[in-house]
Write a structure and sequence with these properties.
single chain, 191 residues, alpha/beta, 4 helices, 32% helix
């Protein structure tokens, strides 16, 4: 599954970043991510992730780690749940089992350690992450839904132009409009 998700992230996911479509994909795969969350990074181990309303994720979330190599046993993967509270901004790394409280902010290059707990309304920075004081929240107008709608319209316009160019290319190449082509009805419907 991990390799399939890597392929999805490379070929499809990067075009869906910061849209509601990526959130829907992860919800269908079992993640507990609210629809108002802005995902600018990817999520692995979907069923172990919970992200509350109006949060912003800018870094990939992974809920796994390798154990230490010991002489009498091989290393193996350990999985732990990650919880992100309401109106939280995550720009840094969250270790497996991390819990981030409501209204908190994890700064860029900060690393919340394994099983780390970030209290509500706290700014954390550094590696390992430490409390840098209270988090100052700002009431900004959110245009993310409007931008997501523009992205969806732009995607449909790109598809429309693609089908129109294929139809025009068929016309110039064969000197007639394709009638027996498998997608001709779809192209005619678009035009």
């Amino acid at each position: 599954v991990d390799r399939a998700m890597a392929m999805f992230e490379w070929w499809v996911g990067r075009f869906l970043l910061d849209t509601i479509f990526l959130t829907l994909v992860y919800r269908f795969l079992g993640a507990h991510i609210h629809l108002t969350v802005r995902l600018q990074g990817f999520v692995r181990e979907f069923d172990l992730v919970t992200v509350e309303t109006e949060s912003e994720i800018k870094h990939t979330i992974r809920c796994r780690k390798f154990t230490a190599w010991e002489q009498d046993k091989d290393p193996f993967l350990q999985f732990r749940k990650i919880f992100v509270g309401k109106k939280t901004s995550i720009s840094g790394l969250l270790g497996p089992g991390a819990t981030v409280g409501d209204g908190s902010r994890v700064e860029h290059f900060a690393a919340v350690c394994e099983d780390g707990i970030v209290p509500a309304n706290t700014l954390v920075t550094g590696s390992p992450a430490f409390n840098a004081g209270p988090c100052k929240t700002t009431d900004e107008t959110d245009f993310s839904l409007l931008l997501e709608c523009f992205k969806a319209v732009w995607c449909f316009m790109e598809l429309y132009n693609f089908f129109a160019l294929i139809l025009v290319a068929q016309f110039f190449y064969y000197d007639m409009l394709p009638a027996s082509w498998h997608y001709s009805k779809l192209c005619y419907w678009f035009l």
